[in-house]
From TrEMBL:
InterPro entries: Ala_racemase/Decarboxylase_C (IPR009006), DAP_deCOOHase_LysA (IPR002986), De-COase2_N (IPR022644), Orn/DAP/Arg_de-COase (IPR000183), PLP-binding_barrel (IPR029066). Its cofactor is pyridoxal 5'-phosphate. GO terms for biological process: lysine biosynthetic process via diaminopimelate. Pyridoxal 5'-phosphate binds at G248, E290, P291, G292, R293, Y390. Pathway: Amino-acid biosynthesis; L-lysine biosynthesis via DAP pathway; L-lysine from DL-2,6-diaminopimelate: step 1/1. This is Diaminopimelate decarboxylase. The modification N6-(pyridoxal phosphate)lysine is found at K66. It comes from Carboxydothermus pertinax.
Length: 445
């Protein structure tokens, strides 16, 4: 397994993160356990801050909350000077409870409810990223009722096919997100937005997908968007002030993943944008980016305890852990690949080819197929790296498995930032109707 962030092996041969022994973490907090490396999370935020905001002070990097969000994480993001992309009332509420500055919040979503829109307008979010006409008019009405003018970006579907998994592509025409350029719906939305009294159009947003390695895809996106901006200017006289290019930068999960650096991404974006604006006679707009995975992904890992080991001679050895698709559905959803290490024997040589199974009642609940691990026995600890993005936020209670706790580690300390769910938490919303309250003996017909 390739080490990320502050990972190292200590004198006991145990894996350590943020100066904390993972064996101690398992003892104190139990497993499965999400571990967030504070220094790595902050470093990744800072890379965006330096490459964007410091280079062009009017530009803004906003962290995509869908990746990994808790109130403590909102505090980290705010301290590092980033804004926040929220995509639901729940994410917005989390930001509100964490006292996140609302003018740096961008509210996304392809079907915001009237209640969510009201919450956002009342909270004073900086931008609504409007996805469709229904939302545009609803937002105008709600802003009117609140006697305010809401600043917005229109989400544009640029018609770009990013080279990534089918389920995480978002920029192509046949997509539930945004106004397509090619069909004329994007320019139509601009004309309508400009007519609305309680809407202040600032510019455009697009997001082509996630886990992208080719910087060319981002350059191409800037080209398509600036051509659209020029078309808008020609047809309406509206000069785009803000261009939000979404997130999408890929990260290392397994050998063969070679993500570009954040400053290389920034350079490609700024260079292409300046050339294009000059060529097309446009004012260079303020740039916004919305990274998620490349900030949280490498900062997170998940610690499991190994249980049953099943050897099917000549076929495969299944090593089952105490979590699985409940805490990390990505392998089942996207055939995502991960690396792992036996955390309490971190110096031991990999000697055996095994596959890591989760504990859900689902054959597809496999976390890793075919990985070489050190000699293992039940009770050993397995750490899967790079699980910071889209694991906790996509976790579920399938099979009534309680969700893991999350600890923030750094400087030799571990602080709980999400407590482990209990069986009572699982029952929290259950109700028994009166006619089922008293236990009756089953009738046999
Ligand atoms: C609109 C939008 N912005 C930002 C992101 C964050 O993307 P990533 O985690 O790939 O950086 C996503 C997720 O793909 C998204 O849909
Ligand atoms: N959840 C996806 C990314 C989707 C991002 C949202 N547009 C993943 O785990 O890779």
């Amino acid at each position: 397994m390739r080490f990320t962030g502050t990972m190292k092996v200590n004198e006991k041969g145990h894996l350590e993160i943020g100066g904390v022994d993972t064996v101690d973490l398992a003892r104190e907090f139990g497993t499965p356990l999400y571990i967030l490396d504070e220094a790595e999370f902050r470093k990744n935020c800072r890379e965006y801050y330096h490459s964007f905001t410091e280079k062009r002070p009017d530009s803004l990097a906003i962290y995509a909350g869908k990746t990994l969000l808790t109130t403590a994480i909102c505090r980290l993001v705010d301290e590092e000077g980033l804004g926040l992309d929220v995509v639901s009332g729940g994410e917005l509420y989390t930001a509100l409870k964490a006292n996140f500055p609302m003018h740096k919040v961008f509210f996304h979503g392809n079907n915001k409810s009237p209640e969510e829109i009201k919450l956002g307008v009342e909270a004073g979010v900086g931008r609504f990223v409007v996805d469709n006409l229904y939302e545009l008019y609803l937002l105008n009405d709600i802003a009117h009722a609140q006697k305010t003018r809401q600043a917005i970006l229109l989400r544009i579907s640029p018609g770009i096919e990013a080279h990534t998994h089918e389920y995480i592509k978002t920029g192509q025409i046949d997509s539930k997100f945004g106004f397509p350029i090619e069909t004329g719906q994007a320019i139509d939305a601009v004309i309508r937005a400009l007519e609305l009294e309680n809407i202040e159009l600032k510019g455009f947003h697009c997001h082509i997908g996630s886990q992208i390695f080719e910087l060319d895809s981002f350059a191409h996106t800037v080209e398509v968007m600036t051509e659209f901006m020029a078309e808008v200017y020609k047809n309406t006289g509206f000069m785009t002030q803000e261009l939000d290019l979404g997130g999408g930068l890929g990260i290392y999960y397994t050998a063969g993943d070679n993500p570009p650096a954040v400053d290389a991404l920034a350079e490609v974006i700024f260079n292409t944008l300046e050339n294009q604006c000059q060529k097309l006679g446009l004012k260079v707009p303020r740039v916004v980016v919305e990274p998620g995975r490349s900030i949280a992904g490498p900062a997170g890992s998940t610690l499991y305890t190994i249980g049953a080991i099943k050897d099917i001679p000549g076929i495969r050895t299944y090593v089952a852990v105490d979590g699985g698709m409940g805490d990390n559905p990505r392998p089942a959803l996207y055939q995502a690949k991960y690396e792992a290490i036996v955390a309490n024997k971190a110096n031991a040589k990999p000697v055996k080819l095994v596959s890591i199974a989760g504990k859900c009642c689902e054959s597809g609940d496999m976390l890793i197929w075919d990985i070489e691990l050190a000699e293992i026995k039940p009770g050993d600890l397995l750490l899967i790296s790079n699980t910071g993005a889209y694991n906790y936020t996509m976790s579920m209670n399938y099979n009534r498995l309680p969700r893991p706790a999350m600890v923030l580690v750094g400087g030799g300390r571990a602080e709980l930032i999400v407590r482990r769910e209990t069986y009572d938490d699982l029952l929290r919303h259950d109700l028994i109707p009166v006619h089922l309250k008293n236990r009756k003996v089953a009738q046999i017909y």
